Amino acid sequence: MTLPPALEVRDDANELDMISHVNEQVATDDEIVTWSLRDPEVFATLYDRHAPAIHRYIARRLGPDLADDLMAETFLLAFRQRARYDTARTDARPWLYGIATNLIGRHRRAEGRFWRAIARSGTDAATESLAERAADRVSAQMSLPALTAALARLSKSQRDVLLLTAEAGLSPVEIADALGVPKGTVHSRLGRARRKMREALGGIDPLDPREDAIDE
Amino acid sequence: MNSLKQMLPEVAPPSREALLEGRGRLVAEARDEAASAGRSRLLKRRINPWTALTAGLVAGTLGVGAALAVQIGGDHRPPERVRLVSAAEVLSRASAVAGADGAARHGRYFHYRWQEISLPDEKSRHVLGSGESWVPAGGNGRGLQRMQPCTEGNAPDCDVVLNYKDGATDREGFTGPRSPKYLRDLATDPDALLARIRRTAKGDGTADDRAWREITDLITESVGTEPKLRAALFAAAAKIPGVVADMNTKDAIGRPGIAISRPGRSPQQIIFDRGYRLIGDRTLAVGKGGPEPGTVLSAYVLVNEDVVDRLPAPRPGLVR
């Protein structure tokens, strides 16, 4: 592998250090991963960039308590596996979401309990404020318990692709990368997940962007 | 936004503590790896003369010396125009961190320790002054400045009692030129804040120069004010062109941090810790004929800050 030029990060940074570069270009994720092979601490830049989003995804699926720990664990695993990173991918998010999804898979029971608890109580421990926002907008269509009960009934693999699409905003190709499965598999799992959710939600497609109109 | 995301309630962002802990675990492992790689390199260097001699002989013989030299030597020049993070990213994170702080309850006090340091040359460092400040939450009520030396009457030490109204004090020289009330009125939206500052900021240079100078002043002066204001100021600063981040600086008291500045354009630089919390500012040389541009001339250091319940009583005999 050809390493890029050495890092700007310096061990001997001192009070008088000053960088006078202008018109900066920001390193892409693949460059950061590659550079971190030479200077491991650079990998923290990737953490700064993506940790909040990874936390949000995990908290959505497992709640806030596990999310703190698994967010850290995701980046530790990514760091240990970084030599295998495909540097053709400039965006590391699918890779990180894939690692996070695998970690979530180890807590499958916890996830089931999490969704079922929301379905029973109508409250979500991961959230800042319970569903007033959602309830305001979608009360005519459905309730949060019905939604989460429907999510709880999906298989793990269906929930993975649905939430990687809905929550993480990944495309089917990126999800295929993240999960290490063929793109066709992602499409079929997503199709089944959407069909099940539509049935449970009285016809509402969970990935329908037209529902944005409710938000306006 | 898709309908599923819209239907589910918002997820709370990770706490600053959780983010710092996760980062700390990662950096600790990275440092372990770097240290063991260093030991491994050292070991290789010990045997390297023989390896290099053999390699050189073989390479010379085979005529592939140049390729081998590249492989062994590598390219250690820093990239000219590529940076690990943008200043906008840093300031956005700083804004999120500041905004996540809860507003202090009425009746409590923002408390911080500070130092002013002069750096006349590379080797010298003079503490010009230091102190502690207590500012009433909400900007109304009694506050206190404890400072050494005292700017009032040239005493070596003193307590200055301050009465705040809408964030401004009744003593000249103890508050910035703009009251926090004025700032709070601005702070709802970073775009509106920046637009207004661009219109109203006075002084030399371009509109961006003036806006950067004004915003960095406001950021420093907003220490001890409401989190939303600081968040808006950081977010507005992120929108000014020419701002860059140096992720590996150290502040005037040796703490690792992130410096945000406009190299070659503005002397003001603000410093964050690795958790994106403001820890001070610095003034840099920018003009010709003086110190090398970029040289740090002086620094204001926020040693620590917290929120406390009580205002200490002024020390008898030291009140000015």
What's the layout of helices and strands?
The complex is a heterodimer of chains A (216) and B (320).
Chain A: E1 25-26, H1 29-38, H2 43-62, H3 64-81, H4 93-105, H5 108-121, H6 132-138, H7 144-153, H8 156-166, H9 172-179, H10 183-200
Chain B: H1 3-7, H2 16-62, H3 65-73, E1 82-83, H4 87-100, E2 109-118, E3 126-136, E4 141-148, E5 158-165, E6 168-169, H5 180-186, H6 190-200, H7 207-221, H8 227-237, E7 244-250, E8 256-261, E9 268-272, E10 278-284, E11 296-308
Antiparallel strand pairs in B: 2-3, 2-11, 3-4, 4-5, 5-6, 7-8, 8-9, 9-10, 10-11
Helix pairs in contact in B: 4-8, 6-7, 6-8, 7-8
How would you summarize what this structure contains?
The complex is a heterodimer of chains A (about 220) and B (about 325). Chain A is an all-alpha fold.
Radius of gyration of chain B: 25 Å
* Unreliable residue runs of chain B: 49-80
Please give the CATH class of the domain at 27-106 in chain A.
Mainly Alpha
Taking the sheet with the most strands of chain B, its summary is:
10 strands, antiparallel
Q: What is the straight-line distance between the termini of chain A?
A: 49 Å
Describe the strand arrangement of the main beta sheet of chain B, using strand numbers: 6-5-4-3-2-11-10-9-8-7
Helix-strand pattern of chain B? HHHEHEEEEEHHHHEEEEE
**Looking at the structure, what is the overall shape of chain A?**
globular
User: How many strand elements of chain A?
Assistant: 1
Fraction of residues in H or I helices of chain A: 55-70%
Largest interface (C-beta under 8 Å): A-B, 82 and 68 residues
Mean residue pLDDT of chain B: 78
The poorly predicted ranges of chain A are 1-23, 128-141, 211-216
How many discrete domains of chain B? 2
Q: What is the arithmetic mean of pLDDT of chain A?
A: 78
Order of helices and strands of chain A: EHHHHHHHHHH
Number of helices of chain A: 10
